[in-house]
Amino acid sequence: MAKRSKATPGGDGPPVPDVIPARPTLPKLRDAAQDCRACDLYKRGTQTVFGEGPTKAPVMLVGEQPGDAEDIAGHPFVGPAGRLLDTALGEAGIDRARVYVTNVVKHFKWEPRGKRRIHAKPNGAEIAACRPWLETEIALVKPRILVALGATAALALLGKSFKVTQHRGRFVDSPLAPRVTATVHPSSILRAPDDQSRHAEMRRFVQDLKRVAAELK
Ligand code: SF4
Q1: For 51, what's the count of Cα atoms within 13 Å in the CB-facing half-sphere?
Q2: For residue 107, how far is its CA from the centre of ligand 1 (angstroms)?
Q3: Which of 44, 50, 61, 31 is nearest to 123 (CA)?
Q4: Which residue's CA is the nearest one to ligand 1's atom 2?
Q5: What's the whole-model pTM score?
Q6: Rounded to an integer, what is the distance from CA 38 to the centroid of its chain?
Q7: pLDDT tens across the length of the chain (217 residues)
Q8: Ligand 1 centre and the CA of 192: distance in Å?
Q9: Which of 8, 47, 64, 106 to probe ligand 1 with, by most ligand atoms within 8 A of CB?
């Protein structure tokens, strides 16, 4: 009998390693994740939003967590940030159909503000609780290039020494994939204060993705 993992604070279901199928495939993993209650975030989100893309995608992009639109749709990167990402990938020359997209945390964490649901940052315990889903996705897809989008994903995948503001677009050694890097999250571009800075941020984002495209050749 498999050794039982430590219970996760805040959740009222078994820890993720206990519910990952013995011989996982992406569809089996996705199914198992739908019922995950390993941390408190399942109480707030509408549903688990699991990663999507080809089984053997050469590129995996990892964001922080699903947003409001993704939580409702049940699919990652389908809201405004996802549309911006699609545009940037196109401009960088990366075929969107060859990309697997997912998040460090699979439930939307939010706080109410009036009638709106405002994004709230997942904490370390929530990220740690959810991490085995991501690790298993990486193990199954085996991407040649892994790209963290935003500071939370970069911290989770690359550790504290990688600062997105200073090191974005740089490839680093990692046991996670042959090539690993990080850049900003597309939602940060949407939050730019004016058109000029938004266009400048978009250009830098596309530039970072072009480095990824160059590695794919
Ligand atoms: S955020 Fe992750 S660990 Fe927490 S309930 Fe959702 S799927 Fe499970």
Answers
A1: 32
A2: 6
A3: 44
A4: 130
A5: 0.95
A6: 18
A7: 334 455 566 788 999 999 999 999 999 999 999 999 999 999 999 999 999 999 999 999 999 999 999 999 999 999 999 999 999 999 999 999 999 999 999 999 999 999 999 999 999 999 999 999 999 999 999 999 999 999 999 999 999 999 999 999 999 999 999 999 999 999 999 999 999 999 999 999 999 999 999 999 8
A8: 30
A9: 106
